[in-house]
Amino acid sequence: MKTAVINGSRLLFLVLWLNLVHPAHGCPAKCVCYSEPKPTVACQQQGLFSIPTEIPVRSQRIFLQSNKLTVVRSTSFSSVHNLTVLWMYSNNISQIEAGAFYGLEKLEELDIGDNSNLRTMSPTAFRGLTKLHTLHLHRCGLSELPVGVFRGMFSLQYLYLQDNNIITLHDDAFLDLANLTYLYLHNNRIKIVTDNMFHGLISLDRLLLHQNRVVYVQPKAFSDLGRLKSLFLFFNNLTMLSGETMDPLVSLQYLRLNGNQWICDCRARTLWDWFKRFKGSSSELECNVPTALAGMDLKRLESDELEGCVETSLTQTTLFNAKTRPGKFPSTENPLGEAIPRCCLGDNDKSSILSGDVKSRQITNNPLKEKENISKTKFKEMERTKNETRNKQSDGPLGTLSNDLDQSLDNINPELIDNLEPSTAPNKKKKKCSKKPKSDAHCLKGRGSTIQAPAFFFTPLIWISLAMS
């Protein structure tokens, strides 16, 4: 009797063990199928060139990562309606057909990251994934996202888009993602954060935008982000950020803005005021210009140190100077087009913010004006220029980026920034500016007349020409 009980126990154990580890009926070749904890098909690292066709219909999890898959067809998963987890990362996928995941209404996690050839996709690729809460699209070589690609994904909470080549995002791209909490966009090529880029993200908790090429954040860009707690914008090309832009971030706790090229003058006033109200944790905001404040933390400046504004034509040569960091692209162009207002500084301040070689100090089509600009260059400025030029390039994890700025930056809405001034406008004569910095309102009086140089401006040159003749 005792022997029979022991044998019966062994038989029961064997049955249970077979049920756990023995391949289920119809398991694809090169795959392992098991039932617990959930019906699973594991085909990772099998050198597969196509998605298996004999996947059991009861499967809830499919692991296809680290193979050589190239295409996800509209019929690849049409029979597995119970699927909740699908991993296809680290393949060679270059195409996802329209409706490739249609019918997977129970799918909760989809990972197709690390497919560097997936540069485009159908606008309806994710249509029907109403219960998906996690989507991985990192390191896919994406340069843009189709309009409406996230439409109807109301349950999405985690979206990974980092390490792509995204330059811009369409307005209302995330409009349906009211439950999204984490959005990872770092290490892309985004240049302008527009007013409607994050429209609809009312539950967003974390926004990572660091290591892009952001030069400008429009005033209403964060208007829907009242629950945001973490914002990373470090290692971009920002020079200014208004307090109006930051005002909607009433829940913000962690802010990183280091590694940018901050202009610490009158245009930083509203941001400085906002920091006086901000109760969270922030990185330093290292001033780039004027030179007298270079290296200082904007937040720690005194109110009277933010008087006056740096000349537009002088500022444009210093925004990307020898301190260029990874993710930056040096340029003599004004990254905001003609958006930096002009104001007067003392003579000492004016001479102290020049940088770059002599040829790049003033960008103008007037050869006479060019000669005058060069003639005003002082010996000590040329010495400083040589030292800065030696360190112009910066090595880093992102390498040295292109010197060319997107021409679309010139199309920034002029209403967003007051007092636009052409970068080629001639400098005012020294007697126009006092030693003490003046206010914008005072310095911008009669600005319309500064576009053309006054007639007497070139008179000495004309006299010289007549004398020589």
From TrEMBL:
Is Signal found in the keyword set?
yes
Spans of biased composition, class Polar residues?
Answer: 400-411
Q: Keywords assigned by UniProt? A: Leucine-rich repeat, Repeat, Signal
Tell me one GO molecular function of this protein: ganglioside GM1 binding
Kindly give the Pfam families that the UniProt entry links to this protein: LRR_8
GO CC annotation: what is one?
Answer: membrane raft
Q: Which GO BP terms apply?
A: positive regulation of Rho protein signal transduction
**Signal sequence segment:** 1-26
> Where is the stretch described as Disordered?
356-445
Q: Where is the composition biased (Basic and acidic residues)?
A: 368-393
Q: Which InterPro entries match?
A: Leu-rich_rpt, Leu-rich_rpt_typical-subtyp, LRR_dom_sf, LRR_TM_domain-containing
This protein's record includes keyword Plastid: no
Q: What domain of life is recorded for the organism?
A: Eukaryota
Composition bias, Basic residues: 427-436
Protein's UniProt name: Reticulon 4 receptor
Give the species this sequence originates from. Answer: Gadus morhua (Atlantic cod)
